[in-house]
Design goal:
The structure is a single chain. 50% of the residues are buried. The chain is globular. Helix content is 13%, strand content 32%. The strands form 5 sheets. Strands 2-3-10-4-9-8 form a 6-stranded mixed beta barrel. It is mainly β. The structure holds 2-acetamido-2-deoxy-beta-D-glucopyranose (2 copies). One 2-acetamido-2-deoxy-beta-D-glucopyranose is lined by residues 93, 98, 195-197.
Length: 459
């Protein structure tokens, strides 16, 4: 879950109406590939951390996020590792000839960016293969001019503002993109050819994919060991510069993914699919409308109406789920956040309901950051934990399996993997752990989210 700072959100938002699809109107070789589907394997990379370690960082990121929406002048920066826990990675081929790059798939941000290098000769000596995009090894790389319309879609570094002159020939579009934890990527906003193997085995190309060529990258979530060797981020948000928006018109403005349970050994492959996927599981697809937030064009919001524990409706005021007139609140579906966050008052009710129903001992020395943990030593086989169900707008219900909200923090210790939204004005997040085992289909044209418990087995 990554988030751009307020100013950026506002810039993007104000520009969205006039220049929505300004980027993707650039020349493309094929008009429509509605019959094609891009099927990109998603790799789960989680070598060091367990989902429980993600927590402090997730929380920290959210708190920055809240500050952002409240437009506090000083954004608190967080330290410490984030990311590693529970991220999904996807390979993007950029350039001519294509260079493979490993990116984090993130529905919580818009920009596609990769680490770039200007290295020309003997690059392998200083740059391990595929550790960055070698600009000078591609024949199709080009820069946006700072006066291009596309350049207005990306946030510019501060000192650069006003420096753009249409007459100056070599005045590249610079960008600087910030995430919720204070991490920053900056460099040139460029264009490249990207290639894919479609699901039918055909090689597809897309010219002029607008992306950030990152030369300066800093912060815990985008560099260092916690980035897990990734070379960038693929923003899958709803804004005009995201991967989905740029390629969407070729593939029916739809994408879907299935995040499979990565605790299974060997872990099954998950896929990100761009386009209209026909799967048998779709017949059992449930739908809820995607809502928009006037303050942020990036996120995929859904509406929660009620929460049930073992089919008993909890007395949570429906208004805690609303997006208010300032753009606070609401619930987003985010592939880049591990845990699930719900409003404090709802969280208290869920905790109370679980405590009433489960009479198991607490473990000695309860894990930090979790409010509800059980010592399940000796009873694992017959263990039955209460069922959590979210009733959604559109009269559908999301009923995750127990493993999506109870996680093993150590042997014989299970904890409820829900977190309260830290401060007022924050919003709720359905994280990737909660999404496991479901096929999620983001239908941007119809503005709806489909989900199916059986769809995953088919892809
Ligand atoms: C397409 O598939 C071939 C054969 O598996 C592989 O060598 C190539 O790298 C793939 N290209 C892309 C762009 O994914
Ligand atoms: C869980 O319970 C078992 C059996 O009572 C005990 O031996 C073990 O130390 C407990 N584990 C924790 C983490 O509390």
């Amino acid at each position: 879950m990554f988030l751009i700072i307020t100013i950026i959100i506002i810039i993007l938002f104000t520009l969205t109406h006039i220049s929505h699809s300004a980027v993707n109107r650039h020349n493309t070789t094929v008009v429509s590939d509605n019959h094609h589907v891009l099927k990109l394997p998603l790799h789960h990379i989680n070598p060091l951390q367990s989902p429980s370690d993600a927590i402090s960082s997730d929380t920290a990121r959210l708190s920055v996020l809240l500050a952002t929406l409240h437009r506090l002048p000083n954004l608190p920066l967080t330290s410490g590792a984030y990311a590693g826990a529970g991220q999904y990675f996807v390979t993007l081929h950029l350039g001519t000839p294509p260079q493979p790059l490993l990116l984090i798939a993130d529905t919580g941000s818009d920009l596609i960016w990769v680490t770039c290098s200007a290295c020309r000769n003997d690059c392998a000596a200083t740059r391990p293969p595929h550790s960055s995009f070698l600009v000078r090894h591609s024949d199709s790389y080009s820069l946006h001019h700072c006066f291009d319309r596309a350049c207005k879609l990306v946030p510019q570094p501060r000192p650069n503002r006003g420096a753009c002159k249409p007459t100056r020939l070599h005045s590249p579009c610079r960008y600087e993109y910030s995430y919720a934890d204070g991490s920053i990527t900056s460099g040139f906003f460029a264009k490249e050819t990207t290639s894919f193997n479609s699901s039918t085995g055909k090689l597809l190309q897309h010219d002029s994919l607008a992306f950030g060529c990152g030369f300066k990258i800093s912060g815990p979530s985008v560099s260092g060991p916690s980035f897990n060797g990734a070379q960038g981020i693929m923003g899958l948000g709803r804004g005009p510069i995201s991967f989905v928006t740029q390629l969407g018109h070729r593939f029916g403005n739809k994408f879907s993914y299935c995040l499979k349970d990565y605790t299974i050994a060997p872990p099954p492959t998950s896929y990100l699919m761009i386009g209209n996927v026909a799967t048998a599981g779709k017949s059992k697809m449930l739908y809820t409308p995607l809502k928009t937030n006037p303050i942020s064009s990036t996120f995929y919001y859904i509406g929660i109406k009620d929460v049930y524990v073992d089919n008993v409706k909890l007395p949570i005021s429906p208004s805690v789920w609303d997006i208010d007139e300032l753009g606070n609140g609401g619930t987003i579906v985010d592939s880049g956040t591990t845990l699930t966050f719900i409003p404090e008052s709802a969280y208290r009710h869920v905790l109370a309901a679980f405590r009433r129903r489960v009479k198991l001992p607490a473990p000695a020395g309860s894990p930090a950051n979790f409010d509800l943990c059980y010592n399940v030593s000796g009873i694992s086989r017959r263990l039955s934990l209460p069922r959590l169900r979210f009733k959604l707008v559109g009269n559908s219900a999301f009923s995750p399996p127990v493993g999506n909200y109870f996680i093993d923090t150590s042997e014989d210790v299970k904890c409820l993997a829900l977190q309260p939204v830290a401060s007022t004005g924050g919003f709720s997040v359905i994280g990737n752990l909660m999404q496991q085992g479901f096929l999620f289909e983001f239908d941007i044209e119809r503005s709806q989210l489909g989900f199916s418990r059986t769809g995953c087995s088919k892809s």
